[in-house]
Specification:
Helix content: 25-40%
Number of domains: 1
Radius of gyration: 16 Å
Shape: globular
CATH topology: Glutaredoxin
Number of strands: 11
Order of helices and strands: HEEEEEHEHHEHEEEEH
Largest sheet: 5 strands, mixed
CATH superfamily: Glutaredoxin
Distance between the termini: 32 Å
Number of helices: 6
Structural class: alpha+beta
Strand order of the largest sheet: 7-6-5-10-11
């Protein structure tokens, strides 16, 4: 958790959004990069689609929500994915314009189970896994995400330190918004509606 706070507090590329759209004075809860961040720099295998190459960009006029985590994560990953699930359930027809992808930071432990895990939260979500750690780190870095080495506890549980941010990507592969850990479903849904309306 301290890593996540450090990423949020210390990143020079994130700034609070102060402007609202459509005359509404609501401020976005998430953050936008001070400079545009192109995140569709490489394709990774979508193991929920037979390993087909996955591009980190939304469909036309949509959004792609991206999360870097792993299935054994005890708190941050299931909590974040649960909030995403609730947000999309509350969005009505706009939810059809939102795709979700979870990228595992523990491909050795997750590749065979990631699709079932992420689709238990969001049916049709993309499960992204690669054993090419160099490319995985390069893609994560484009998002300003990070992760450490897999280690095992005394009980044999796999543990990976990782940043715990949720990202929204537009249809041009540009990072549109970043949410910190703990953003609730209502705020996610409101921000997503606002991005889709822009």
């Amino acid at each position: 958790m301290t890593r996540a706070r450090g990423v949020i507090a210390g990143s020079a590329v994130l700034a609070a959004v102060l402007a609202a759209c459509g005359g509404d004075d609501r401020q976005l809860v998430g953050y936008v990069a001070e400079q545009p961040r192109q995140v569709d720099i490489a394709e990774l295998p979508d193991v929920s689609d037979g390993g087909a190459p996955f591009r980190f960009a939304a469909a036309d006029d949509g959004l792609l929500l991206v999360y870097f985590g792993y299935t054994n994560c005890p708190h941050a990953c299931p909590n974040t994915m649960g909030e995403v699930k609730r947000a999309l359930e509350d969005m009505g027809d706009d939810a059809d314009r939102v795709d979700v992808a979870m990228v595992t930071v523990d491909p050795e432990g997750d590749t065979d189970v990631l699709a079932d895990y992420v689709q238990a939260f969001v049916p049709g979500a993309h499960a992204i896994a690669t054993d090419d750690l160099g490319t995985l780190r390069r893609v994560a870095s484009a998002f300003d995400a990070s992760f450490g080495e897999v280690r095992e506890t005394a009980s044999g549980t796999r543990v990976v330190d990782h940043s715990v941010l949720l990202y929204a990507v537009d249809d041009e592969g540009v990072l549109a918004l970043t949410w910190p850990l703990g953003t609730d479903a209502d705020d996610l849904a409101a921000d997503i509606h606002q991005l889709l309306d822009d």
